[in-house]
Amino acid sequence: MTRQQPFVVILILGALSTISPFSIDMYLPGFPAIAKDLHTSISQVQLSLTAYLVGISVGQLLYGPLLDRFGRKVPLYGGLALYLLASIGCALTPSIETLIAMRLLQALGGCVGLVAAQALVRDLFPVSQIAQAFSLLTLVIAVSPMIAPTVGGYATVAFGWHSIFIILAIITALILVGVYFVLPDGKQADPSLSLRPKAVLGSFFTVLRQPQFLTYALVGGIATSAPFAYLAGSSDVFMNIYHASAQEYGWIFAFLAIALIAPTQLNQFFLKRFSSEQIIRTTLLYQSVVGSLMVVGTWAGWYGQFGLIAMLFLFLAGQGITSPNASALSLAPFTRHAGSAAALMGSFRMGFGACVSAAVSMLHNNTAVPMVGVMMICVVSGLVILLFGQRAIQHEREQTQIDEPMTEVML
Question: Where are the membrane-spanning stretches (predicted)?
């Protein structure tokens, strides 16, 4: 790349990375309007979010091998084209069932941006710049929840909820043009790589047999899926229970997004003094306490709208610390199978997120209790898995230390 290219490349990669976050967050203010227009309930509309999360979970596992086998550009073209057509399908949908199906297809297409952007960073930037490039991508993804619901809220009021999907289709078309004309090719196709299920599954099973990965991937998947309960339930809670307008909901969502962004900077400070294991254990304990108070207070009627916002802010602040440490600890044991580990980790998170959003939908009772209750269950479950998993990790380390001296004596 020339000296002028890196900024443009990062801009395009950042746009690819935000397709899925925008697709999740932007239409949340339109939930009540969608339910009214399609003659259905909020809980049914929430299932369209669940379908999208299922699509991302499955899609990440598919695109990893495809990007290695066929190069970066061909899967990108296919995925973005599918996303664009599905977005138009969402805008023209006549029923909630069709919307759910279109959202699933939209996710299967759009998640190529998440996987391809990470692969292209490794392809296009020298080792000394990779960390900086990933930091910029992470920042773009983290900021998107502050923008998307606000834009979605104003678009819903001004043009109707259908316009959200038209906007997403137009944005994706522009990204597709940038990918074709500006983005470098990156790694070329490798015909020697096998796409046979046995070879792909073999790599996945190798990763899953590692106790440290399994522990922290499950902790990260379950504990960090709490925000998906918030995503699924917040529009109903604030717009139907507290009667916030679509624009007001967008600003509430943007404010609470700060709770997810700011702690990521604190994490760098904590890592200078504590290990990731200590940080994640303390953070999950903190979230379990805050989550319990949030559930009890919501059930007892202690909080009004602003009280609930404050509790959600305190709770979500822990996510910005839990997530990066869980990711680092999950991937730490791997070099050769790091790609498979990353795909599995991402799939776990979106898979658990889909289950969590579905649970909020099924438990819907016109109160905030299902949303905050599921959020609390996520972090408490993560803490329990962490405590038992750390014992298994410690046992494996001790066993390894015993086996190595015995091997030396035998030699």
Answer: 7-24, 44-63, 75-94, 100-121, 133-155, 161-183, 213-231, 251-271, 283-302, 308-329, 341-362, 368-389
